[in-house]
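stage 2 :: seqdesign
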């Protein structure tokens, strides 16, 4: 299992003048998603949709043997139905929407 570096650990390492060897979180190293107007809110640890709704969870980590680690975020479909961005966002019969 890989340990990830948190911001507090980086600040502490700089203050105590030692070098960290752990990896940064993939959201930090790879950046955020592009072109879909979803914004990552670092304080909440969640994504915000173009309508301003935060995801229901703070990320479900999925690890596959032969693929990169993926983090899924879920939204409340009822909120998605009530916004002007509904087209292309919701699908009939679903109770929640996942992305990432």
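stage 2 :: out
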């Amino acid at each position: 299992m890989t340990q990830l570096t948190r911001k507090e650990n980086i600040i502490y390492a700089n203050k105590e003048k030692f070098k960290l060897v752990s990896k940064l979180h993939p959201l930090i190293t790879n950046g955020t998603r592009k072109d879909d107007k979803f914004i990552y809110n670092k304080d909440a640890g969640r994504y915000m949709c173009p309508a301003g709704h935060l995801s229901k969870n703070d990320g479900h980590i999925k690890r596959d043997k032969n693929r990169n680690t993926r983090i899924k975020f879920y939204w409340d479909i009822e909120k998605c139905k009530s916004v002007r961005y509904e087209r292309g966002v919701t699908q009939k019969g679903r109770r929640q929407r996942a992305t990432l």
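stage 3 :: structure notes
- The helical segments are 7-16, 26-30, 77-81.
- The chain has a mean pLDDT of 71.
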